[in-house]
Design goal:
The chain has 10 helices and 18 strands. It has 349 residues and is an alpha/beta fold. The chain folds into 2 domains: 203 residues, Medium-chain alcohol dehydrogenases, catalytic domain (Quinone Oxidoreductase, Chain A, domain 1); 123 residues, 3-Layer(aba) Sandwich (Rossmann fold). Strands 3, 5, 6, 9, 10, 17 and 18 form a 7-stranded mixed beta sheet that branches. The protein has a 6-stranded parallel beta sheet with strand order 13-12-11-14-15-16, with helices on both faces. The longest helix has 14 residues.
């Protein structure tokens, strides 16, 4: 299959607001040894796109430092972690049978080759991503989903949001019959958490705002708590015996308010800080009740393989809130930042 020499892309040349997203005509990358070239059908937006662009991650030695996901970014950088598309070329040492296959790319850059490796980098941050017509990826990170009933837009929503959700659920050891609290329930990760937790047989309590309540309930939440009211009071009423697992992308005051509501041996899993990264809680509620606070960044290769099995069988139904053409990436990011939508926003190169 012939590929052009150049392609349209949207990239950032430095940290800043939506204005730093620039359209560019760049060379189509050549797949190196062990890599494939994917023609991008859809790329989903994530909060990490906003925070990487803004440099909002801080560094261990300086929480306020401008930084990418795991350190300084190499500019210019093409953003976009979540890619669905087709393999159009393979590099040396790659099975030629992958050519023409419909795929989803695991965007994580791992610390080792093992099945339980930790992500230490991300496509669109530590290497160029999918805000472009083509992107390269390691062949080992490309998953064949040719037979999935999901659309390209739906497949593109999976890697970061559903990967993060599955990582949280696995690390939190959520079991059938347990009661789970989901914060930020109307966002991409929140909807994914509800769907996967519900499929596992958990009772799902979700925190959202009034206008999004119906959509969150439709995603599978058993009860929806209004984030504008007393969360702890609503939680006590909905789960008088406490909750087993909290799946939290908000953090902030919610951790201190909610930790006393965990049952014995409960787990509080944090994968975001939409409500603030500076957290205070009564440590006695932790050690006296054998509770655990667990940090969860994305997924492992094992988690991602489980997710792709769900996608092939169509056992999850991602919600696509809106789709934009590639050249309106800045507008799409602004819509994402407003948080008025339910589900995921995608770009179509």
């Amino acid at each position: 299959m012939d590929t052009p020499e150049t392609m349209r892309a949207v990239r950032i040349a430095g940290h800043g607001g939506p204005e730093v997203l620039e359209r560019a005509e760049v060379a189509v990358p050549a797949p190196q040894a062990g890599e494939v070239l994917v023609r991008v059908a859809a790329v989903a937006l994530n909060n990490t796109d906003l925070w990487t662009r803004e440099g909002a991650y801080g560094r261990p030695d300086d929480p306020k430092a401008l930084s990418g996901w795991r350190g300084p970014i190499g500019f210019p950088r093409i953003q976009g972690a979540d890619v669905a598309g087709r393999v159009v070329a393979v590099g040396p040492d790659v099975d030629g049978g992958l050519a023409g296959r419909r795929v989803v790319v695991d965007p994580a850059i791992y610390d080792t080759e093992g099945p339980d490796a930790n992500p230490v980098g991300l496509m669109g941050s530590e290497r160029d991503g999918g805000y472009a017509e083509y992107v390269t990826a390691p062949a080992a990170r490309v998953h064949d989903v040719t037979d999935s009933p999901l659309t390209d837009d739906q497949l593109a929503t999976l890697p970061t949001a559903y990967g993060t959700a599955l990582g949280m659920i696995e690390r939190g050891r959520l079991r059938e019959g347990e009661t789970v609290l989901v914060s930020g329930a109307s966002g991409g990760v929140g909807i994914a958490l509800i769907q996967i937790a519900r499929a596992r047989g958990a009772r799902v309590l979700a925190i959202s705002s009034g206008s999004k309540t119906d959509a969150v309930r439709e995603a599978g939440a058993h009860e929806v708590l209004d984030r504008a009211r007393d969360i702890a009071g609503q939680l006590r009423a909905a789960a008088p015996d406490g909750i087993d697992v909290a799946l939290d992308v908000v953090a902030g005051e919610l951790v201190g308010d909610g930790l006393p509501l965990l049952r014995e041996g409960g787990r509080w899993v944090v994968a975001g800080a939409l409500g603030g990264y500076d957290v205070a809680f009564d440590v006695r509620r932790l050690y006296l009740h054998n509770a655990q606070v667990i940090g969860s960044a994305m997924h492992t290769p094992t988690h991602f393989a489980l997710l792709m099995d769900l996608a092939r069988r169509g056992e999850i139904q991602p919600v696509v809130a809106a789709a934009y053409p590639l050249d309106r990436a800045a507008e799409a990011q602004e819509e994402l930042a407003r948080r008025a939508h339910v589900g995921k926003i995608v770009l179509r190169p």
